[in-house]
UniProtKB/TrEMBL annotation:
Name this polypeptide is given: HMG domain-containing protein
Domain of life per record: Eukaryota
Basic residues compositional bias, start-end: 125-134
Renumbered residue ranges of the record's region Disordered: 55-138, 331-358, 933-954, 1168-1208
Bias (Low complexity) ranges: 55-88
Length: 1208
């Protein structure tokens, strides 16, 4: 029996028995019933019988020639050891059903022979761990590709009726199977390629015999690749190609089986994976995997459907599957839009107890500027000092501490008695041994904090009794003595405590004792407020519950928290994303209603330049110049509502342009406009039929409340019309993905009368119309500025030129260039065969595409001409700004400009307590710009908001031009500031913020981008990017065009916009694929919890706490990036060592001996500069600031901050 003990259980913990033995059930029962405090005695064991064990498998296969690698994924990973002695091969006899790898109940039947027992695993306490959805994978792409190749090879062999390695379906968290019966006209390969729900792929062969893959991981339009005769290049397709190449003998048979045939009808099929149910759909051209665990979770994965993944053709086909059909689909789709509905002023009223008590705002600013700067988190030496102070406080209150350390020895014989020091106590002896501090030593500073003069023996100490509060188990504060002195320059040097691991509040309690706190106590206080998203009032109650004699009032705790946070100075690297670096290519910006109360006498310093608008005519950059025609086209494409007389007359003029005569004797611009209008008419009326100007159609006779029996496209289009603000057109694709509300609008496919859709070529519910409408809407309904910004123009020009040729040869080979914009790629992919049949339509599309490519250069030329004309007239601001800051942008250049410009000279704008903005490592590189705000007139029906604490809505962003249709209501509390404007990277690392004192404006967003980024980001995500783009086009077009900046809506807000599809992120997957556009919303979800706490703070306290909160949020976010293998739950990880090791952080305590310290690292700030903000110009690089400040001088001894604290 002893010989088999190692196979059945863990010798170190007999209470845990291996589940792979015959005693598995007893072991599990014993594990549940056993106590965790002490091991149970060794019990009898039944020896393992010498029987060869097998697992029933539908296929028996030979052992694998290569060892399987254990891959880290979302599914449990199985490591397959080599074959055993008795011939049972672990890799060759595992069940071929992938469902078994996630079911622990099957482990008793496993064929794996256990040589060494697993280590005992203690039961986990608490709730179940979070799902690892969206976490980074540990293995490389090459390893995953190799594993997927094995999976696909096994699937193809089973398809051909050959023996396959069963272990290929387990061990990696991935799966591959051939879908469809053997007599089906076409089959495809379905793969699970990762831990996320969208990590699915469908792979098949194109008509040209090239592999095509529809998956989430790439941005290639598969339908466009198929039409252009090209194949996919993602790693899934490469793995598929490698698997087919490994079976070269059967290549022809594999291609014939997995190749799409012309007679294939659109259909959907259910797929069972080891992670649950999924589906795949064929829309007549391509296959696409669909997430389909439940009806509300249906989401298409195809690139061409990203703009509307829950209501595309693939999704609708999957919803018709039997298991997903319901009688009343009240919630047909889960919404992707996450909004922050909580408004300022609706917080818990008890949060106003965090008022400033007796702490004045000027005093807090003085503390932030003059007191010794402290590390964001404590260093290792501060931790040791804190433990030593806690031990001192505990022993000082013990009765044994005051007893003599040396007891009187008894006299023995005639030996003399050695007299010991009668005054030495136990506490003093512990102090001599270095176990505790000596509380009788006077705490004071050894050098002046203002002039640096050292204390001499002639400088008299003014002693005062104090109380030291620690975070240990002491029930009473430690009695200490605090000293202050006057330096030769008559500066009063009060005790700070930073070098002793203490913080002196420099205020007395009711008994007149100076209040001193350990760093650990202060950290515990602010950490409780931050992590609990609570207030200092709640923290006071919490601390009082821990001790019977707490004795501190709430006002003292509030003052302590405010003062301590004001002295914290995070390193600039905390605001740098480890992935994006100093030069982020993607930036997410958004405003948040997070305000504070403004008091009398409040002032800010935020100098900026006024750049007037160049007043460019936006109509000149549209294919159709007349706004009335564009408005009528948008109405026809979005809804089926009857046209007005004005709409019909405008569309009649467009229809007549098809047969209008050539305008002889006109200017080149007029001729070009005539040609564009004619080509636009050819394109529009190919898909809409003109009847008569009086045939306006009909509307819905009466609103049917709750009616939802419209067609698929019509249902959500009508829903969007019902919720579109200001009676504007609803967006194509619907608003969100929630249930369709009742609407009086007709669906677009229900239009009757003139300009009704032509369904002879394409059916209403087909994929073709879903691609035609966005293409017509973007190209004909709106200006086409910045349609292809950031993409190479040469391939697009080549495509347009080939389309305009008479023979039309070769345009398909150039069609890959259209992948730059989603709706353009979809149009060519689905309508390509029609373009080959109709040369006139093809040439018209080529001409319109050529205009869209060339229009950006026309805008650049017009802007420069307008700026020059304004400069000739005396308004030189715009021309000078664009000329000076086009190629030169650095902190040094900005400092030179600020020293010369009267509006910036001698302004203390570097302090966050003066400018009320903070951007970490992002120094100012260009001057800020602003746009004067216009006060909208109040109509007769609008009444002013009255009463305290009301939330005011309706502060709209000013329309940039007549074609601007998007509106955003910015909530504004009547007694609080408007909020903060955050700049976040896609990895949810906040780079900085700016306080908004008025309603959010796109001018603020544009100013922040220009002011802080030397190289402008490649893509800027903003919830009103359409307005931001037009504002920039009128003021700084030259800079934006030079840096090729693209403005995109974030995905959470794009569904509700009625602007051009140009700004939709999923229409520009070539540059936005895989980018988290909701990063600002994720940051807001955390910051919103601090509304009640920050709303009642002073302006300075608001800035100090906001900087601290963002620093801790960034520290956690970067920790997750640096540790991709860490647990999903990392709240228990202490980030102090990570802060000093990964963020270029130096200890700010001059005399500290920790590994992150450097003597002289903490330099006193120059006048007007505090530790929370950016350093003043020419200040140089100091500890905790990294090496990102350009220029500066070296620090000299006169710049030293406070000296080391001393106990005398």
């Amino acid at each position: 029996m002893a010989g088999h003990q190692g196979h059945d259980c863990d010798d170190h913990d007999p209470s845990f028995t291996c589940r792979r033995t015959q005693m598995g059930v007893l072991g599990v029962l014993d594990l549940v019933a056993s106590s965790s405090s002490a091991p149970r005695p060794l019990r009898r064991r039944v020896p393992e019988l010498p029987v060869r064990r097998f697992v029933l498998s539908p296929h028996s296969s030979p052992p694998s020639s290569r060892s399987s690698s254990t891959l880290a994924g979302g599914s449990p990973s199985v490591s397959l050891p080599p074959s055993s002695v008795d011939g049972s091969v672990d890799g060759g006899h595992v069940t071929d059903d992938p469902l078994s790898i996630d079911n622990d109940s099957h482990s008793d039947c496993s064929s794996v022979d256990v040589g060494e027992p697993p280590e005992a695993v203690a039961p986990r306490i608490g709730r179940r761990p979070r799902r690892t959805v969206g976490r980074a994978r540990a293995e490389s792409e090459a390893v995953r590709q190799e594993a997927l190749t094995d999976l696909i090879s096994a699937a193809l062999r089973r398809m051909l009726g050959q023996r396959a390695r069963a272990d290929a379906s387990v061990g990696s968290g991935m799966m591959a199977k051939v879908m469809g019966s053997s007599d089906a006209p076409s089959r495809f390969l379905f793969c699970v390629v990762g831990p996320n729900a969208v990590d699915l792929a469908t792979i098949w062969f194109s008509p040209d015999g090239l592999p095509l893959c529809s998956c989430w991981g790439h941005s290639q339009n598969v339908a466009l690749l198929s039409m252009a005769g090209d194949g996919s290049s993602c790693w899934h397709a490469m793995a598929f190609q490698a698997a087919v190449d490994g079976m070269a003998v059967h290549r022809g048979e594999i291609i014939a089986t997995l190749q799409v045939r012309d007679d294939m009808k659109p259909h959907a099929i259910d797929v069972t994976t080891h992670k649950g149910m999924a589906a795949a759909a064929f829309d007549g051209t391509i296959y696409s995997p669909v997430v389909a665990t439940k009806r509300r979770d249906v989401k298409c994965v195809a690139v061409s459907c990203r703009s509307n993944p829950r209501r595309c053709h693939h999704a609708e086909l999957v919803k018709e599957l039997e298991r997903l059909v319901v009688a009343n689909d009240g919630v047909s789709g889960a919404s992707d839009v996450s909004s922050d509905d909580e408004q300022p002023g609706e917080q818990n009223h008890h949060d106003d107890e965090d008022g400033d008590a007796d702490l004045q705002d000027d005093e807090l600013v003085k503390i932030a500027k003059e007191r010794q700067k402290r590390n964001l988190v404590s260093c290792i030496e501060e931790d040791k000092q804190g433990l030593k102070w806690a031990r001192t406080a505990e022993w000082a209150t013990n009765e044994l501490a005051a007893s003599p350390f040396w007891p009187e020895p008894p006299a023995v014989g005639g030996d003399p008695v050695v007299e010991q020091s009668a005054s030495m106590t136990v506490l003093q002896r512990m102090a001599e041994l270095g176990l505790v501090w000596d509380p009788s030593v006077v705490l004071h500073e050894v050098s002046c904090t203002q002039c640096g003069a050292a204390k001499t023996d002639n400088d008299e100490l003014r002693k005062q009794a104090g109380k030291l509060y620690c975070d240990g188990n002491s029930s009473e504060p430690l009695s200490v003595t605090v000293g202050s002195w006057i330096c030769p320059q008559k500066h009063v040097v009060e005790y700070d405590g930073g070098n002793d691991g203490l913080f002196s509040l420099r205020k007395t309690d009711d008994s007149g004792s100076m209040l001193v706190f350990s760093r650990a106590f202060c950290d515990k206080l602010v950490s409780f407020v931050y992590h609990s998203r609570s207030s200092y009032a709640a923290a006071t109650s919490f601390l009082a519950s821990l001790r019977s004699c707490f004795g501190l009032r709430r006002q003292i705790i509030v003052t302590l928290g405010r003062c301590f946070v004001a002295t914290l100075k995070p390193t600039e690297d905390v605001f740098v994303c480890p992935t994006c670096g100093d030069d982020p290519a993607y930036v997410v910006i958004d405003g948040q209603a997070l305000g504070f109360r403004v008091k009398d006498g409040f002032s800010i310093s935020r100098p900026a330049l006024h750049l007037p608008s160049t007043n460019l005519n936006i109509d000149n950059y549209a294919v159709i110049r007349r706004p009335s025609i564009r408005a009528a086209i948008r109405k026809v494409l979005r809804t089926g509502d009857p046209l007005t007389k004005t709409d019909a007359e405008a569309l009649r003029d467009l229809h007549e342009a098809r047969s209008s005569a050539f305008p002889r004797g006109r200017t080149a611009a007029a001729v070009n406009n005539w040609r564009l209008t004619r080509d636009a008419a050819v394109l529009f009326f190919r898909f809409h039929e003109w009847t008569a100007v009086d045939d306006l159609g009909r509307g819905r006779p009466s609103p049917a409340v709750g009616a939802g029996d419209a067609s698929v496209q019509g249902g959500h289009a009508a829903a969007a019309a019902a919720v579109a603000p200001n009676d504007e057109e609803p967006p194509v694709g619907g608003l969100g993905n929630g249930p369709a509300p009742a609407s009086t609008s007709l669906a677009w496919d229900e239009r009757e009368g003139t300009c009704h859709p032509i369904f002879a070529t394409f059916k209403a519910g087909g994929t073709e119309w879903a691609t035609v409408r966005p293409f017509l809407l973007a190209l004909l309904g709106d200006p086409v500025v910045n349609l292809f910004v950031g993409h190479p123009r040469a391939p697009l020009l080549a495509l347009s030129m080939h389309l305009m040729k008479a023979d039309g040869l070769g345009w398909r080979k150039k069609a890959k260039a259209a992948n730059a914009v989603g709706f353009v790629a979809n149009f060519f992919a689905r309508v390509g065969p029609l373009l080959d049949k109709e040369p006139l339509l093809r040439q018209a599309v080529g001409a319109l595409l050529r205009f869209a490519v060339d229009v950006d250069q026309a805008v650049d030329d017009d802007f420069q001409a307008a700026a020059k004309k304004a400069a000739d007239g005396g308004q030189t601001e715009t021309a000078e700004f664009c000329k000076r800051w086009l190629n030169v942008s650095s902190p040094a250049e900005y400092d030179k400009f600020a020293a010369e410009h009267p509006a910036f000279k001698d302004k203390d704008y570097n302090s966050p307590y003066v400018s009320f903005e903070f951007f970490g490592f992002l120094k100012r590189v260009r001057p800020a710009i602003f746009t004067p705000r216009t006060t909208p007139k109040r109509s007769a029906g609008q009444q002013p908001v009255r009463g305290r604490g009301r939330v005011r809505r309706g502060a709209q962003a000013v329309k940039e031009d007549a074609g601007d249709r998007c509106a955003k209501a910015f909530p504004k509390h009547s007694e609080l500031t408007a909020g903060v404007f955050n700049v976040v990277c896609p990895h949810v690392v906040t780079m900085g913020f700016r306080v908004m004192f008025e309603a959010e404006s796109v001018a603020d967003a544009l100013s922040v981008i220009l002011e802080r980024f030397p190289k402008l980001p490649k893509v800027v995500f903003y919830d009103v990017a359409c307005k931001l783009d037009r504002n920039g086009m009128q003021r700084v077009r030259t800079l934006l065009s030079h840096h090729k900046v693209r403005f995109c809506l974030d995905r959470a807000h794009a569904k509700g916009h009625t602007c051009s599809c140009v700004y939709f992120p999923d229409e520009s997957l070539a540059v936005t694929s895989g980018v988290s556009t909701q990063a600002a919303e994720v940051q807001h979800s955390v910051s919103v919890k601090f509304r009640g706490h920050l709303a009642y703070t002073s302006p300075t306290a608001f800035m100090a706490h906001r900087i601290y909160q963002l620093s801790m949020m960034n520290l956690t976010a970067s920790y997750k990036i640096h540790h991709p293998d860490a647990k999903a739950e990392n709240e228990g990880a202490r980030l102090n060592s990570y802060y000093f090791n990964y963020h270029n952080a130096k200890c700010l305590r001059p005399a500290c001996t920790c590994s992150a310290s450097a003597l002289g690292a903490s330099v006193a700030p120059l006048s007007g500069v505090d530790g929370g903000g950016a350093p003043a110009r020419d200040q140089g690089v100091k500890s905790g600031e990294g090496a990102r400040t350009d220029g500066g001088r070296a620090s000299d001894p006169s710049d030293q901050d406070e000296g080391s604290g001393m106990r005398e």
